[in-house]
Amino acid sequence: MNLNIAFFGSSLVSAYWNGAATYYRGIIRALHDRGHHVTFYEPDAYERQQHRDIPDPDWAKVVVYSADEAGVSSALKQAACADLVVKASGVGVFDTWLEQAVLDLQSSTTLVAFWDVDAPATLDRVQADPSDPFLPLIPRYDLVLTYGGGDPVVKAYEALGAKICVPIYNALDPSTHHRVIPDPKFRADLGFLGNRLPDREARVEEFFLQAAAALPDKEFILGGNGWGDKSLPANVRYLSHVYTADHNAFNCTPLAVLNISRESMARYGFSPATRVFEAAGAGACLITDKWEGIEQFLEPEKEILVAQNGEEVAEKLRSLSPEHARSIGTAARQRVLAEHTYAHRAAQLEVLLGAVRSPVYL
């Protein structure tokens, strides 16, 4: 079952203000390795084409369309012959139109899926607004995929009429995220990488900045867009946008790396960020904020350290030796390579698509 897949997303070639980029790359490369052909349609928007991380890959065709009605119409016309059309959440340009228009491509030979890379936020939005235009479209999609959320997200989408909702979790692409030689520019006791977003900022203040303030003798590094005008403790060094080519060194160099979930994802649980698997694949010692479902992916205190607040982050960092950090990072790497690569996710997706194309859903 080799499929021709049309995928509408924010960007495959740029991670600039685009946290889903490495997720798209991982799953699409893995689908290519299994014989499927993916054309990725992305708008020329938000200066992403000026901040590319990768050239057009050989494992997908990239179509960059103009961020106007003519560009969207042209992309939809090109996608019409696909076996599977995917509309991802958060394309950033004409999302409402695309969510309706891709359903017009649905046929006996063309499945149409909504792939939600921020399901908690989407669900919060539509549940709060009965007039949201996406709400009546949910039952019309052949399937809804999410990159996290577990049973709470599945049940919420099914309650809104989704025919089938299945999480395809973030994972590791070991060909791009792996151990490298540490880089002195990322030397620190704790590093955090994430863009400044409204439902993340307060949690960054609590878990990262409070920990830094409590440990003035430790070094902290902060990477990501939007933090330039943020008041930071003196021992926090701001790096601005960190390109994906530097992510391995960022993960390999500090004593530990911090994961902080966005507020909605922490509330729903079962939503490990892409960087959890990327850092684990590089053998990083991960400290994460607490959320339900962690043990489904990594074993607390053996493969990942878990903190309930900034005080606990500081406490764990204060007592963390290089030897202990290495043992945790090694165990995490072994676990994700065994169970949580994009090859695992692509195989799961193939089984799901085979079931949806048959008369009986899973």
Automatic annotation (TrEMBL):
Record GO terms (molecular function): glycosyltransferase activity
Glycosyltransferase among keywords: yes
Domain (Spore protein YkvP/CgeB glycosyl transferase-like) ranges: 206-350
Keyword set includes Acetylation: no
EC number: 2.4.-.-
InterPro entries referenced in this protein's UniProt entry, alphabetically: YkvP/CgeB_Glyco_trans-like
Class of the enzyme per the UniProt entry, highest EC level: transferase
Keywords recorded for this protein, A-Z: Glycosyltransferase, Transferase
Pfam families in UniProt: Glyco_trans_1_2
UniProt protein name: Glycosyltransferase
